[in-house]
Here is the input.
Amino acid sequence: MQTPFQRSLMYLAVAGACSALAVPVQAQQAAADGQSAGASDAPQVIVTGIRASMQSTLNMKRNADGIVDGIVAEDMGKFPDTNLAESLQRISGVSIDRSNGEGQKVTVRGLGPDFNLVLLNGRQMPTTDLSDLSGRSFDFSNLASEAISQLQVYKTGRADSPTGGIGATINVITGRPFDNPGLHSSVGVKAVKDTSNDHVPESMKGKSVTPEVSGIYSNTSADGRFGVALSASYQKRDSGFNRAGLFNGYQGPYLGSAVIDGQTLPQPGQPGAQNITNRPAQDALYSIPQNMNYNVAAVQRQRTNGQLTFQFRPVKELTTTLDYTYSENKIQTKRNELSVWFAQTPTSTSTWPSGHVVSPLTYAEVYPTPQDISVVGSDFATKTKNQSLGFNAAWKPRAGLKLEFDAHHSTAESGADSPFGSENALSNASFSRGPVKLDLTHELPILSMRPADLVNAPIQAAGSWFHNSYEKSVIKQAQAKGTLQVMEASNLNFGVGYTDTSNRSTYSNVQNNTWGGATKASDYPASLFQANTLSTYFNKLEGANSPDLFGTLYTFDFAKVRQVTANAVGNQAAYLPNFASADTDRTLVEKTSSGYLAFDTDWDTALPFHSSVGLRVERTRISSRAQVLPGNAVVWVAQNELPITFGGQAFSSTDASYTNVLPAINLDADIRSDMKLRASAGITIGRARYDQLQGGLTLGTIANVFTGGTASVGNPALKPVKSKNLDLSWEWYYDKQSVLSLALFHKNLDNYAGQTLISQTLYDLHTPVGGAYYKEALAHGCTAADTNCIRNYILANFDGQPGVKKTGVKGDGMLDGTITGLPTDPLLNFQTTTYANQKSASVSGAEVNVQHMFGQSGFGVQANYTYVHSPLKYNNADVNDQFAILGLSNSANVVGIFENKAWSVRVAYNWRDEFLAATVDGNGRAAPVYTDAYGQVDVSVGYNYNQNLSFQLEAINLNDATQRQHGRTAASTLNVTQAGPRYMIGARYKF
Here is the structure.
């Protein structure tokens, strides 16, 4: 006997998957309600709650074409996690990136967020994220989970799947009235206690307890022709996080034998060489700290979600759906920080470990004159809004033929929600820093220096910057597809589609490079700044109790200090963002036409199997238009800073196109009734990030005396990454809610867009470093390392001559003023970042997954482990720009389950191994950034008071895990973050 043909999940997702998958549970429920389910009067086993969700999830996995995993909500409006990304991490092969203790983006099978496509009800969704401007990765923190009925993760390619997901295509399915006929409604409330909010200064704290409210209503007419569903939620979260480290990375790396005046360690026999313990070997690479920073941040978020769905079935052969989805995510951030910058002087004292690539264990400097203790504050807010309006019609004109049309218009928009811009910083300083030491042998880096002398050197305004970022993405998409039964067990699937995607990003920056002091210290009353005990904000980190840790974190009210500074300077516009115009304005448009054809059939052979063979063809046209801001001068304003001044505007336009032919083969064989073997082969693509494609040259606003300037430019002609995939999977469904599976996969990736650094001069910009005035200073006793000496000499001896203007004396005793590059000075060298299709890579891995219920005991377990490997590794001993796959890491999950009629309990542990997060550090240099291994425990407990009323208790990050990133060596701390557990207690009432 031939098995029934299993239709594709993507079709079911748009035309009614939830109803189909819920059939077993609904049938059992109908029997329980007294409706006949057959001739037998035997007792029926009613499957509800977590077990019903597990059973529906296994049905989805078992009946799929290709390798698919997912999660089905156990009840309408009751998804198992409060965050969709945190639900996805329970699936084998899926890892998440966290922001402020909450799941945000996903990595699947070693491929990062930009190479995983997220669909909403089968539709490609736009995304915007100001923290990752112009990326393609979907931010799951914008979506509440209450309206979600399923998550489907397609790990293998199929002809009918939209392109863009090499790691996976993730389909988020919302509840629809025809999926659950009849009246269903519920209201839920939660109180949220985020303990991270308790560990920020009192003046920054939000509410101790915040609310969450959600509701869902779904109803269908008695004749089944009309349906309406409405869901809404509002969530407020007040939280905080505290972070310490060398955010801007390290200077270097340098070769132990190198002699570069002003940057490297003194060589044997030179002054200062005696202060080096266990000097790096001659052939070793070493790095020197650049700046040390401690900061505390308070974050308040308000998230509003809603969806309205109408369904109409005029005849049983035609179902139409009109839906509107809305989400708004507002985030307000207050941050205060303490930092010091190191000068890399010959007076340094340092101790080093042995090895070929090293960073110091301790590093100390002394200065001839007092330096600055930097006191920085930020106060900004952003808003992200997503809207989607869609229409779907599914028609069965005759037996064996199904047709479907789907269209939507969706937007995502992010921008500033504050008069102070999308991000900002006011830098203040007390010029009273003496000798300073940094100890990197603890989990928390220990900065030691004498207390600030606020009597003789009060805190005063220094530099500042005000950013205004904006991004908008629009997707207009139409899809038509059909299924034609051509034989008893064979179907022909076909479809065409058109997608118009546009992404616009703008950016402006107002910056004051008055790092030596914007005005007089007397302009700032001492009452503006409050002293706090620094160690209390890092009490979970080893080393926080060190008596050597600098004792004070200074906080201040951003609005008050901004106003005082603007008044003292006499220029309000200099201390507000520029909302009127943009320094950069870039728009990228992608228009893709597609068509596919696939043939599915069941084979009545000795080993029955099902095959799906398809081909997808796509043609994409790209148009890039960018506004650029040319630089017109380089001005030396502080010890090591060379700000670029800009003037005028220019525009560039570029067009490109490409075509892809993408075959896909999916086979599955029934080894026996409870066991499947799957094999898949095909080609998938992942498009480059928008900022990699968008043309337009952008200069870094500040160049460095020693390292020069930075710039970046995209490449609109980049082709997508093309991946040739092979997958095998063995699945044993030994019980209705139990499975044991093993999956193997291999991906060969070509056309990877590698980041390339080009050293070049731009816009005929000349730097005073190395010019005639500079050389005169060297000839009169200054060294290249002592940039203060050079500036003092030039300002004192050449004031009033071309390019030189002395304005006074700074708080640290150094002369203040500007030195502008002249046409006779050297051209400034820029390290320009661009992209090219010049990289290839491969990724292989294995997934082991088990889901088991222990009979009728109510106890169960879900566990999985994912191993991923790529021969392409980042070489820490290579100082050049390198290509490597980001996000590649092993991961594991263990979830313990207990459920009976009254109680449901889930205890989940998620672990992710160390991975490479970036190949460029916080200062734009080519350098690795690794995220350390991380494990988190989450708990949820539910109690059903009766069939209508239930209570929930949830704990997120119960083990109070901390996060850490490091550089070329495991000891080179870049940042370590402390947050805290989050607790939620709530109630839900079903009407």
